[in-house]
Amino acid sequence: QVQLVESGGGLVQAGGSLRLSCAVSGRLFSTYAMGWFRQAPGKERDFVTAMSYRGGSLYYADSVKGRFTISRDNAKNTVYLQMNSLKPEDTAVYYCAAARFGGASHYYRDYEHWGQGTQVTVSS
Question: Is the pLDDT reported for residue 55 higher than 90?
């Protein structure tokens, strides 16, 4: 069973930065497309960004384009989300997700495995 564990969340002031990490168990990390989603209280889970399993395709939500960057380190079985110029509206629980041989999909149903989430709170 593939396990995803997010870390790096916390409280930050508006304009600040955070880097989230998502460690993936097993030996098949390089075959997984990876995505980040977020869910604010009382709202649906929203797409943030994704990277295809080969790493050649990236996709960002308009709300984070130019501020967030997704990257992966296949040697460490880890995907990262660098978040800069954070805004209070970025406050949410952030989830990473994995899709075997997937593309950079914004559709949550394309992902087979999910982490437990990490809280990001941006104060104004």
Answer: no
